Structure prediction request, 725 residues.
Amino acid sequence: MTTQQTKKNCEVIITGFGGQGIVLAGRILGMAAALGDHKESTLVQSYGPESRGGACCAQVIISADVIQYPYVTIADVLVCMSQSAYQKYKEQLAQDGILIIDQDLVQTDGKRECFAIPATRMAEELGRKMMANIIILGFTTAVSQLISRKAAEEAVQSSVPKGTESMNIKAFTKGYEYGLSKLKGREKKAEGKSGAVA
Amino acid sequence: MQEIKIILYLCNWGPHVAFQTLQDQDYLIPPEVKMVRIPCTGRISKALLFKAFEMGADGVALVGCQTGTCRYGRGTDNAAANTEDTRGILDLLGLGKERLRFAAFLPEDVEALKTFLFQFRDDLRRMTASPIRPGGATAAAPRPGKALAAILAEHHVSACQDCGKCTSACPLALSGKPYSPRGIVNSIITGKLATEAVIKEIWSCLTCGICFQRCPSQVDFPAFIRDLRAHVAGHDNGRGPAHGGFFQSLMRAMTAGGLQPQRWLDLPQDIEVNPHSKTLFFGGCAPYFDVFFRRHQTVKTAAVLTDSLRLLNFFDVKPALLSAEKCCGHDLLWSGDEANFLRLARLNTEMIRALGITEVITACPECYQTMAHDYAAHGIETGFNVKHIYEFLEHEIDKNAVAFKPFAGRLTYQDACRLNRSEHMRAFPRKLLQRLRPEGFSEMKESQNAALCCGNSAWTGCDAYSKALQVKRIRQAKETGSNLLLTSCPKCQIHLRCAMEDPFRGDELRMEMKDLTSVIAETICWE
Prediction:
């Protein structure tokens, strides 16, 4: 994460099936960076036949300076919500980049470490499967620290349909806290405390 | 100097001869020593040893025959074992084991007996007087127990429609005991409370609450029984409470204000606590149980407390502990001693408030029910929130990225009555069980709101029917095909284990049994 913070710009690919809310997640990410954190951001969305179930993709660049070129070639953060999207985009992730997956939908090749979250399952438990994108956005916010929590929550609130704000904030918080706890768990494991009983 | 009181339980046979020789030779026996002549030291149970302390003794000596000279065979060994266990309890209680001693003498050991008595007296003089005074603990203070008419009115007992759903669900009745809640209600309404049969039945109830669950008129029979017990206190079932009333004595002794129990002394090093935390972990009486039952069963209920603390630490909660923690009072409340229940409740509440605690977490279903609900219902404002560890765990596990190590075991679960019926808390243990992802989980034939009791409550009314009930329950557990029975309450562990160790049934009822909290602590890990 230190690399993301020190580097001037950060490039993100969010990808999955059409209909999972991939583009909305990208839009919220960019809006949060631009409106809340006062940085520059761009969004390139690719859809089309993908919206019927193929790999859908949102490319976001967040930068402290003016962004000259909006397409992502090598991503610093790759969020995958489907297996086919993972297969298609995994090579575009930088060596020290962060891979984020929905653990129930993506099986990685195991070649690199990743941050996994059962986002779709959590959304189902919360009552709406379609909120998986907001949960994974919360998770990404926590583990990548690309945008501030406050900016992200404001962007979520202004982007989701009227009347669903509190539910979406709940989903965002769920993902965010899960992300924080992932980081904490990694720290604890590094200290050699993986379980409760010594 | 305040006069100290020493009770000497003296065996009729060997040492009494020595004692008599002392008297015949006009030796001065320390005047503080009050001698009670008994037929055999082996029959002085832990309850009788402790009773002396409850009644204000500063020291108790149990003096019997030397090993091998006991007229009845094993008397001396029993006495030594009972003394050792009771000494363990005295240590936990903060009274100090030095106040209780066992010694054995031959009839001719006159000088040795004399030296022992003087030595004991001098040692006790050097200690401070026991803070337990009969005035503070057992005095017959005006009972807060209510009048019968008030009890009948408060529980809407006359709403009973005499339908019999209670009796047909009552685990005691189903285990063959001629017992009927509606029958008791009818007898009392028609003015037969004072009869021996009714009073006996009042003390037999398990207060498990299944009748309340089934009652179409919502008569809370267990609460009715609880108040009746306070009303008829002093008249019991003719046999007194279970285990000779040891636990009731212990809990009454804890009402002594000056007593400083040492219950957290043997806490493992790796557990982190913070005396300034606003969250308190309330342990309960499990360590006392473990000492009391150490010779009979392989009961390790205190492990649940250390496992709970480890789980709190796992989620970065470093709670405060109350070193002078007293019993929550559950068993006194449910065995008719409301006055001393209130004393314990006030003492605990004052100590917890003095620490500025806002939240109390406990792993004991009885402590939970008592502190979360019964304190307030008896007019004691706590000012802190009480949470059961399952609620805490479910919330944290739901929020955090944790996993469970693979767990090879087919599980079944014994509901704790205080979590299950009284508190509508039965969902939490089941959610946690599912998270463990066991090889299999099957409910027993009677579970959740129909669950069978472990056979006893508040250390009263243990009899052959309780045993039949326990046997039935363990058989149900085995019928599920599971190999591990999970429990929530230390008392379920103790009572079911007792039935499993029945020598007449051999290994027929043996089954591995563990507490759910311990299983979670053993398997939880960061993802």
